[in-house]
Amino acid sequence: MAELILHHYPESPFSEKVRAILGARGLAWRSLIVPMVMPRPATIALTGGYRRIPVLQVGADVYCDTALIAEYLDALGSRPTLYPAGQLLAAQTLARWVDTELFWAAVTLRFLPENMGTFFADPGSAQAFAEDRANFAAGAQVRRPPVDEALARYARFLAEMETQLGDGRACLFGAEPSIADFAVYHMLWFIHAGGGMADWLSSRPLVSAWMERMRALAQHPGEAISAEDALAVARAAEPLPVDAASDITAIPPGTDVHVAPVDYGVMPSHGTLLRCDTRTIVIRREHALTGPVNVHFPRHGFGVVRGD
Ligand SMILES: N[C@@H](CCC(=O)N[C@@H](CS)C(=O)NCC(=O)O)C(=O)O
């Protein structure tokens, strides 16, 4: 198998979810640090337009969105599955809620002046970030809650989590971490990275201890790779074969399509549809910098439309 190349940046919470899963599963990985703001020419050449971070590149296959990246990594490495059959609905539903509803509360909390810490190195980077995220927000269909609502949502969540851990379990749904643990971990990591809300954790001993166990799993740095080398890896590889199929009658395999998130960061990727089923959407695209690549998206949370 080709090396795992994560396109990410240190401050990105969704990247922290994947870094933690890579660590927990003992997987070697290569780290391609992208800037916190656009442009990201190598990553965009690979995805064809999708700009959210992180992205996992494996040879000439590119996996977008941590929901799909986590499924991909679940098949690799050493620990039990992240998707235990007996808790599947609970774990997946919690992970999806955390990645959306709790995430937007977390954004409100992380950018409170007293919780910002050193997120921005200087006023210039704050300005560049604001301009970039204004572009990123174009066409978004999400609601970022005001502070009082975000605080209440988070307080209630932590109280319920403290209760759930009260029977001595190590992880949210048993002895081993599931996808829900990694989703909750990266959200708490993000909220508490600035240090301004430390007492929210210290007053919840079971959540604090769980957080330390999860943080320990995440300490597994990747080996740096440059954007040029990552592109060379794509050019030297062949995309993996895909069984052509589509569950949308009007959009059969071979159709020119756009694929985009349905909620925010809706910049589409353009390519030829290879597969669309209840789990994934896969397109084939080509760029002078990458050669032919297959770009994979989860079906949940993404839309596919004809490109012509
Ligand atoms: N559902 C997506 C969310 C990804 C996401 O929102 N990523 C943030 C960074 S943590 C992002 O892309 N922000 C804009 C940017 O970095 O350009 C996933 O699970 O990967």
From TrEMBL:
CDD domains in the cross-refs: GST_C_family (cd00299), GST_N_family (cd00570)
Domain GST N-terminal span(s) in chain numbering: 2-81
Superkingdom classification of source: Bacteria
Regions that span the bilayer: none
Domain GST C-terminal, residue spans: 102-240
Protein name: Glutathione S-transferase
Leader sequence residues: none
